[in-house]
């Protein structure tokens, strides 16, 4: 069973960059565990910054840093189709991490993977109560903080899915331009194909951060209407090439 773990990155702020380094360290630690269990895994970071910022990443330059997430993830899907052909596709937002307590359940998921489902973990928002530092060398948070569980909708910031099903359904709808909605739309389209969400029994943690650009709430409302109306999906121009 080949697993592909993918992190998209396109941010400019220092806290997002440091958060990414922290997440990369956590995933690299997990890769050693996968190797012990003879699980074939490919891990890639996709840097969508105008000027490449991340070493050993796949650079796909984009002039707009914060949004057009649907397009960017379709580039990742295209790369996986052309170069990796995994059975399981995992997307990690660059501000999401997990700890050793989740290893057993994630490895069990990989070994017993059922393509009739896409799998989403419980996401907890990290709330800083004081001066908190990311200890990148030791992969720990230092300082006062607590976590708060959030509701999980659609696919969210981390998910595992059968790659053939993701590619066949056409990836993400590129009509979603600003922040929000593209994950929910994809989850709804999977549900119409009778591929349903399963919640993983493990916790993922979301690091707080600033936004490089303000959310276009007018466009966001338009995108929410696309989801509510179940409008016809337009094939991806990226995946069609």
Query: How many domain units?
Result: 1
- The first-level CATH class is given as Alpha Beta
Looking at CATH, which topology would you report?
A: Spore Coat Polysaccharide Biosynthesis Protein SpsA, Chain A
Q: Tell me roughly what share of residues is in helical segments.
A: 25-40%
CATH architecture: Alpha-Beta Complex
Oligomer: single chain
The run of helices and strands is EHEEHEEHEEEEEHHEHH
- CATH superfamily label: Spore Coat Polysaccharide Biosynthesis Protein SpsA, Chain A
The best one-word shape is: globular
The termini sit apart by 27 Å
Which structural category fits the helices and strands? alpha/beta
**Distinct helical segment count:** 7
Rg (CA only): 17 Å
Largest sheet entry: 9 strands, mixed
Number of strands: 11
Explain how this protein is built.
There is one protein chain. The chain is α/β, with parallel strands linked by helices and 241 residues long. 34% of the residues lie in helices and 27% in strands. The chain has 7 helices and 11 strands. Strands 1, 2, 3, 4, 5, 6, 9, 10 and 11 form a 9-stranded mixed β-sheet that branches. The chain has a two-stranded antiparallel sheet with strand order 7-8. The longest helix is centred in the N-terminal third of the chain and has 23 residues, at 14-36. 32% of the residues are buried.
């Amino acid at each position: 069973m080949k697993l592909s773990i993918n992190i998209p990155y396109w941010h400019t702020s220092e806290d997002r960059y440091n958060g990414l380094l922290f997440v990369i360290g956590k995933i690299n630690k997990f890769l050693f565990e996968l190797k012990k269990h003879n699980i074939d895994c490919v891990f890639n970071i996709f840097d969508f910054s105008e000027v490449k910022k991340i070493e050993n990443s796949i650079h796909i330059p984009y002039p707009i840093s914060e949004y057009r997430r649907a397009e960017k993830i379709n580039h990742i899907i295209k790369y996986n189709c052309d170069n990796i052909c995994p059975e399981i596709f995992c997307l990690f937002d660059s501000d999401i991490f997990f700890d050793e307590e989740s290893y057993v359940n994630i490895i069990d998921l990989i070994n017993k993977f059922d393509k009739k489902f896409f799998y989403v973990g419980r996401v907890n928002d990290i709330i800083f109560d004081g001066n908190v530092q990311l200890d990148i060398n030791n992969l720990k948070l230092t300082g006062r903080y607590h976590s708060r569980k959030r509701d999980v909708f659609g696919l969210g910031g981390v998910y595992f899915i059968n790659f053939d099903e993701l590619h066949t359904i056409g990836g993400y709808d590129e009509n979603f331009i600003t922040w929000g909605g593209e994950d929910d739309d994809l989850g709804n389209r999977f549900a119409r194909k009778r591929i349903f969400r399963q919640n993983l029994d493990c916790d993922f943690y979301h690091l707080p951060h600033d936004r490089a650009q303000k959310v276009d709430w007018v466009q966001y409302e338009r995108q929410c209407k696309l989801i509510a109306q179940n409008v016809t999906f337009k094939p991806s121009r990226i995946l069609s090439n």
